[in-house]
Every structure is written in C-alpha cells, then in structure tokens.
C-alpha cells in the first residue's frame, strides 16, 4: 500500500488519578500533567500521563472520569544521571464521561520504523519490539516504542528500517521493579505495511 500521510491519534476514556501538577511552559503557555487510569478487559490497569493546557486544566478540574482525544508524545527523562523514555498524551479535546461508560484505550499511528526491530520468542508467544518515528507538524518526530505479538511480531521482524507502517493498539504501562520506574509502549493489535519510500 502507498503512503497515506503521517498519523498520530489517541482516544482514552478513564478515571483521573492524583492531582493536576504544573509541568512546563512554552512561549508563555503553561502546561500541566495528570494521570488517567484505563482498565483492560483482563482487569489490569494502565496508568497513562496526560499533558494538558491551561484551558483543558480548567475544564478537567471539575471532572472525575474523562473522555480525551490527543496525540502520543515521547521525551527523555533524566533521573540519577541516567535517561529513560517517557510518554504522554497531549490532550486536544476533553469532555466528561459518565461513570457507566466503558474505558477506552485506542491509539492509531502511521510512521516509519526507526531502528531494526528486535524479535523475541517465548514459550507461549512471539513478540517484536520496534520504535516508530511519527513526525509532528513541525517535522520533529516522536519516536514511539511499540510491541507487536505473534503474527504481527513475525511480520514486523522482517521489515527493514524506514518501512512505513500503520498500527492500531493501546498504550500500556509496565512497572520495572528493579529500576523502580514505569515504562510505556504501544501494544499493537493490528499492523499494515505501506511503501518503504514516501511518495512525492
């Protein structure tokens, strides 16, 4: 399939946890961070950081459960003279969600494979980890860690760097106990391969 244009969309419905805290300012605009908790069908929970503007903060302060749409952003976090990858959803739209509304954790990305995929075979399943480069409007890319399973794992493991792919999945959080830190990645449910070169 041919190049369709870069894509980065996240849709989350869940429960806010913890206080809204100041994060940073860009050209005088203040941004804040808060965590949304989404529950999987298995009952496991994902704790996903949100980055919100002053306007969204004002709206969100009145909410407990939220329905948000935004984009996945990645950045380096410095801790104890070491760095690790952080992830957050930059919220563009926010509305209140009813208590009975089911949790949602959907991500759709279109980008190019940034580094050689790493294939692993375990007793019960196969998995492949790969970073996906998705440019922002400013052309600055977010390099988003992704994990594919079984058939998708076997497929993406064979793809060369710069291959363009579209992935659908969810953001998952994992606590690395030995490092006492949380890591984030997109767990891929569906993967489509496009051309390896961008059409002019």
From TrEMBL:
PANTHER family (UniProt xref): SINGLE-STRANDED DNA-BINDING PROTEIN (PTHR10302:SF27)
Protein name: Single-stranded DNA-binding protein
Keyword DNA-binding among UniProt keywords: yes
Alphabetically ordered keywords of this record: DNA-binding
Coiled coil: none
GO MF term set: single-stranded DNA binding
Gene Ontology biological-process entries: DNA replication
Superkingdom of the source species: Bacteria
Pfam families registered for this protein in UniProt: SSB
Organism: Clostridium porci
A single GO cellular-component term on record: nucleoid
